[in-house]
Amino acid sequence: MTSSEAPIARICVIIPTYNNAGTVRQVVEDVMAFCEDVIVVNDGCTDGTADVLKTLPQKVTVVAYGSNRGKGHALVAGFRKAMDMGFTHAVTIDADGQHYASDIPQLLGAMAANPRGIIVGSRNLTQENMPQQNTFANRFSNFWFRLQTGVRLPDTQSGYRLYTLSALRGMSLITSRYEAELELLVFASWAGVEVTSVPVRVYYPPAEERVSHFRPGYDFFRISILNTVLCVGALVYGLPRRLGRTIKRAFR
Q1: Cα–Cα distance between 68 and 17 in angstroms, integer?
Q2: What angle, 0 to 180 degrees and rounded to 10, lies between the N-to-C axes of helices 180-190 and 216-233?
Q3: Rounded distance, CA 190 to CA 100, Å?
């Protein structure tokens, strides 16, 4: 390989799960139709998820630990395992069945234009059955993300993403739960990682069939606290770095 050639991409799919015994198997099976390298992170499940994971194909890698530590922690555990296994990129998809595995090619297609960045699957936030509190939290998050980074994204709360793993090396997170996905995007953007989006579909079952670990009051409060911290960080760190990169580009 010459110095001008890009390294060959090795892609896996990371599926964090917490108490998704009824859906995780189908999600894994759907994903394996598009990518056979799958890492499932058991985030301290207390239902029958662990038993379901034992029946998955041997090719599926399972990372597990005893107590629930939050989605952010589960993602970091998955990223570390993927790096240890030599993968260069990772698609993340939720285990609740709301994402369509058939949209994985959409993310991979977008990777051609952004091979070293993060690609976020953007959902239609106005479609039928979309929980109203989720829509509000997302728009709230989108506003603050743009203020903190200068980047406009239509769906900063989507868990359906493609990450360049090298862009995450050395990155430390303040939080470990639901809001950590927003934090990942902000820190990556401050570091100069290009964050883009591509449309994806989403399925929201009727309210009586829905399994969600999002707690509107508590999680919205945590997101608000995080955004306060990130706004301060944007002033003292993020904005100066953006200005520095702009000046460098101007004098090239």
Answers
A1: 10
A2: 20
A3: 30
Distances in Å between the Cα of 37 and the Cα atoms of 86, 118, 148, 184, 192 are 11, 19, 35, 23, 28
DSSP β-bridge partners for residue 39: 14, 61
Backbone phi, psi, residue 54, to 5°? -70, -20
89-92 and 161-164: which strand pairing?
Answer: antiparallel
Ramachandran assignment for 19, one of left (phi > 0), alpha (psi -120 to 50 degrees), beta (any other): left
What's the rounded Cα separation, in Å, for the pair 91 and 119? 9
Q: Which residue has the tokens 């998050």?
A: 141
Give CA–CA dist 101/97, Å, rounded.
9
Per-residue pLDDT of the chain (252 residues; tens, 9 = 90+): 344 455 689 999 999 999 999 999 999 999 999 999 999 999 999 999 999 999 999 999 999 999 999 999 999 999 999 999 999 999 999 999 999 999 999 999 999 999 999 999 999 877 666 666 667 778 888 999 999 999 999 999 999 999 999 999 888 887 878 789 999 999 999 999 999 999 999 987 665 555 555 565 666 677 778 888 889 988 888 888 877 877 877 777
Tokens of 170: 């050395």
Give the C-alpha separation, 120 to 115, whole Å: 13
- Specify whether the CB–CB gap between 232 and 174 falls below 8 A: no
